[in-house]
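Reopening closed ticket. The problem is back. First fold of the pair:
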Amino acid sequence: MTNPLLLIGSGNRDKAAELRHLLVGLPWEVMSLADYPPAEEPEEDQDTFEGNALLKARYYGSSFGVACVADDSGLEVDALGGAPGIHSARYAGPGCSYDDNNRKLLGALAAVSDDQRIARFVCCAAFIGLDGTEHVERGTIKGRIAASARGANGFGYDPLFIPDGMSLTFGELDPDSKHSVSHRGRAFRQLRRYLESLVAHGYAS
């Protein structure tokens, strides 16, 4: 029996590569958007991480007629009332870079003391099956925002985020160490168990 197809519904190459790493060894044939014709990215217009994750999984799954996983994730900073939140990827405006977002965040926290720079990363991982089955898992990791960017690993806000119980930022951790505690690692470990159970019970594409 051939493994069913599973598309990673993300146009962000860094995130798609991280998700592929987290899905290695599944009894699915994991594909990326690079394996399909170009498609416009959907407008992420929902007001929750769950809503945007499901929106992307539905959009790419229906566009290519394949089961799909997608995630929506972001950084919530207590001193900023939960911002940037669902707007994390575009915090510094349309077309902004990771560095642009990090500079804006550091500027917003310039007068905030170290003990008040409390934050959390949130990830919602969504699956859409060919039969319309929908499943969402959520992962979070608490930590704080560093005074300056540290480390060249990861992407996004990783160089600024220090998880609780550690002294290194996500940008300073090697990928396996990061995934062992990260929001995305936690969400996708739970989603892996669900996807494995689907195949064990006879799911086929």
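Second fold of the pair, where the issue appears:
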Amino acid sequence: MGTKRFVDLSIPIEADLPSDPPMMIPRIDYADHVKGAEQMEMFFPGVRKEQLPGGMGWAVETISLTTHSGTHLDAPYHYHPTMDKGKPALTIDQIPLEWCFNDGVVLDFRHKADGERITAKDVKKALDKIGYKIKPLDIVLIQTGADKAWGTEKYLVTGAGMDRESTLFLTEQGIRVVGIDAWSWDRPLPCLAKEFQETGDPGVIWEAHFAGIDVGYCHMEKMANLAAIGRPFGFTVCCFPTNIKSASAGWVRPVAIVDEV
């Protein structure tokens, strides 16, 4: 009988790393067990620290972050108020759970340059290379290699990214959850801004995200460890988001479940 191997595809939420724009960098206040003992004195009037195990109490953290900090799942509401050509866009608490536990497939685009487009033609070629035909509700994971730059200032500009046509190629076949090991599902924002300045074409701005206006879908960003899955398909992805009322995203700890012979 085979065993199951679990691969963590997330990055931890950490304070003070330069891997987000300044306004999005998480802040974490750690209250250790010594501080916890002081807090417990307020909850249990009359208790002395010496009466607690080792003179210590609980540990607790206070975090300031956005719903897009760390590895997270974006809901269609993040991209626009509507999806599916006019329907109200789903918020993260409305995402069908059946979207978030399905067969996975990894498409390797580590050969692409930073800021380069991953086109529909590229996606088709990658699928042909591994001999896989996607089906509705598969969870498609895009590997760019950007996670190697996590924790550095280069992270924001590392990796290739999807465009409108490649996103629609997937969603029009019934794909509802995808993911990428980069900061954004689109190409890095500075690359988009540079192209807009050069061409004046607003169609390049957030083109892959805005594809969700036509067909509602979710994407995971800031994933990691896709190479550790060890195969392009033949595994399951579990990626249930934190349930946040009316939010545009939720933190997620995606896991690849691989059956070992």
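Update: turned out to be a display glitch only; the data is intact. The mean pLDDT is 97. The CA atoms of residues 124 and 151 lie 32 Å apart. Please close again.
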